Amino acid sequence: MMFQPTLLLTSALIFPGGIGAQNIAIIGGGISGSFASKYLVSYDVNCSIDSISIFEAMPATRSANVTIAPSDDWQGSRVSSVRLRDGSVVELGASIGYEGFHLILDMIRGDSSIKLGKPYNIGTSEVDKRIRDGLGIFNGHGEWNLLTSREFKIISKLKLLWRYNYDLVKLSKFCRQALKKFADVPSLLASLEPNTFFASPDALWDALGLKKAVHSSFDDLLDALALPSEVPWYKRYIPYQGSLRSELLTAINLVNYNQDNSQVNGIVGLGSFAATTGSLFSVEGGNHKIIQSATNQAISISLQQCDGKAQVQQVPKRVSTVVGGSATSFSLFSGQEKLGNFDIVVIAAPLQQAQIEFMVQSNFDKAVLQPMPLTELVDPDLRETKDGHAALPTRLPDSAFRPYTQVVTTVLANATISEEHFNLSQEQLPRSVYTTSKGKASLHNITAITQLSSKGLYKIFSNDRLDGKVLMNLFGPHHVVEYVKFWGGASGGATPDYRGRGSSVDFLLYDGAIGFDGNTVSGALYYPNAMEQSSLACMEISAIGAMAVAKLIARRLRLIMETQTKERNRDEL
Ligand SMILES: Cc1cc2nc3c(=O)[nH]c(=O)nc-3n(C[C@H](O)[C@H](O)[C@H](O)COP(=O)(O)OP(=O)(O)OC[C@H]3O[C@@H](n4cnc5c(N)ncnc54)[C@H](O)[C@@H]3O)c2cc1C
Ligand SMILES: *[C@@H]1O[C@H](CO)[C@@H](O)[C@H](O)[C@H]1NC(C)=O
Ligand SMILES: *[C@@H]1O[C@H](CO)[C@@H](O)[C@H](O)[C@H]1NC(C)=O
Ligand SMILES: *[C@@H]1O[C@H](CO)[C@@H](O)[C@H](O)[C@H]1NC(C)=O
Ligand SMILES: *[C@@H]1O[C@H](CO)[C@@H](O)[C@H](O)[C@H]1NC(C)=O
Ligand SMILES: *[C@@H]1O[C@H](CO)[C@@H](O)[C@H](O)[C@H]1NC(C)=O
Band of the pLDDT at 491, cuts 50, 70, 90? Predict the structure, then answer.
């Protein structure tokens, strides 16, 4: 061990600016992986990183072909769309962006070829004058809690205010405060202050003053705000009163997470609510263009910085094994095929979906592989080592292995929604049907029905695949099933199963380099998706995870240094 300090000093002498050639692997080319590549090259102004390889099992560079059924054994990016025979494009996963998506919007602004459109746009320029409007919350058995269709926006707002009154005011106020704190994320991540190099999602939420909302269920947060789950007795005699909590708030969490207020954590609930109060967008021609653009921006910045050298590479391969060497690098494999050696690996996909075996070579016999102890990093001075690795690793929490929530997206054409089943005439039906818990249970576990065009194009979210009889009852005998995307199975799922709280693992999952000061360079495995497991799951959060990780890597590679300027003060919400 004695020689290590000298070694590091020598390398510092040879490479006064950075630390020399480094090969980085990013596993996963969704939002997290593509954004990480752009952020990494943006730090690497002197082109000191040797290579950045993005491995993606199922590249989503364009919309899926409607005539080819999606693969059931590999899910792919959760931002993806399908192109129908008439040329319209329907989002299958992430469809809606929110005005508070600062990093996503920044990326979009970096590319003049991306056009922002209205939510649920199908990429056609013609205006659909006969498309319905508004939102309805269905409570099952012909009963509607809320209907805002065919009204001017201002009346809808008044209607909401009348029905939910003080609850709505209180939650809106709280949500505005939370959003103001959340808006600090880009500047915190851009800062070089020592306390802005967040080791974990928890550290970030703590700095924002939002940690409490992450660690409790949304129900607990609503209890703390004294929002009732039923209409209180003294309001029962006033017409048209409802419970914000069991109606609108439940419905939006079911739509976005397929989990109710007790199952999601506080920050998820606030995020879902925020999206009902601000303006929304969707990229014309498909949100996957954001991913494509992030990678293209990374490639073009890097070509400029590296005098035309191909630093960033996209590799259409599924990584199946990561082997940590006894020294400081990783070997990646796709089945039997060796993909190369890498100093730093970013795993930009949920661990429970990536289907990767993480191994390390034994120090005693390099031919012997043992499971890599994926742990939170402990102080190297404190940890006992056995075989060169922590003897008592901090185990990853259960939440790191729990399967994600299953959702099925069904796209129907030529459908006529049943007036009888929904107890409304075609004129009265809203564009989006959401459900309460009771409504969902009575509606074959459907959580959303959205009309995409007045020609009978609909998108449905449900727990399970919907059988033909059910679809016939709800959407008439002439409906055509255009496409069904299953978000689930062994390598899939839509959002983390929160069980009432976010959980946090560090961004640094494994550190193979046990050097002096714990201040080593190679051999690190980073995990941006820790972010969605700690908090909410949306495109912006994936971008935040990517930026937080890119910043830690940049510090590790000495592309940036911590600089102390001033103290930040913060208060907990
Ligand atoms: C039905 C649905 C609706 C949603 N609605 C919204 C919404 O309206 N707004 C919103 O903001 N968000 C929404 N989301 C959430 C959003 O899609 C995700 O939070 C976000 O896209 C996650 O991006 P990611 O890159 O972190 O992960 P992923 O999109 O899961 O990307 C991981 C990538 O890694 C690849 N990969 C995994 N393992 C390997 C391996 N071993 N080797 C190679 N490649 C691998 C996968 O193929 C995949 O492309 C929705 C999600 C779903 C499923
Ligand atoms: C979709 O697939 C079909 C059948 O394989 C093919 O004929 C068609 O050209 C494809 N469409 C597009 C847009 O690629
Ligand atoms: C249908 O809606 C009407 C109000 O428009 C309501 O009075 C009636 O009870 C509903 N029917 C059922 C079966 O709930
Ligand atoms: C709805 O989901 C619940 C819980 O997963 C399940 O018990 C129930 O059978 C489902 N109902 C239908 C109609 O599929
Ligand atoms: C679409 O529905 C209409 C009735 O609404 C029917 O006449 C027509 O045949 C259907 N088209 C297809 C392609 O099924
Ligand atoms: C890049 O190179 C310039 C000029 O040699 C140097 O001043 C700067 O510190 C370097 N930046 C990094 C991040 O290494």
Answer: confident
For residue 375, the model assigns a pLDDT of 59
Pair 558, 17: CB distance under 8 Å: yes
3-state secondary structure of 537: coil
Asked whether residue 290 carries a pLDDT value surpassing 50, the answer given is yes
Closest CA to 449 of 276, 249, 262, 251: 251
* Encoded tokens for 276: 């009902």
**Which residue's C-alpha comes closest to atom 14 of ligand 3?**
142
- Say what the pLDDT of residue 327 is: 59
Q: What atom of ligand 4 comes closest to residue 445's alpha carbon?
A: 1
Tell me the pTM: 0.93
CA 330 / ligand 6 centre spacing (Å): 28
Q: What is each CA distance from 146 to 172, 237, 242, in whole angstroms?
A: 18, 18, 9
- Kindly state if the Cβ of 2 falls inside 6 Å of ligand 2: no
What is the spatial distance between Cα 225 and Cα 260, in angstroms, rounded to a whole number? 18
- Sign of the torsion angle spanned by Cα atoms 41, 45, 49, 51: positive
Q: Which of 68-72, 216-220, 267-271, 534-538 has the least mean pLDDT?
A: 68-72
CB of 165 sitting under 6 A from ligand 4:
no
pLDDT value, residue 389: 43
| Tokens, residue 125 | 């320029």
Interatomic CA distance for residues 459 and 439, integer angstroms: 18
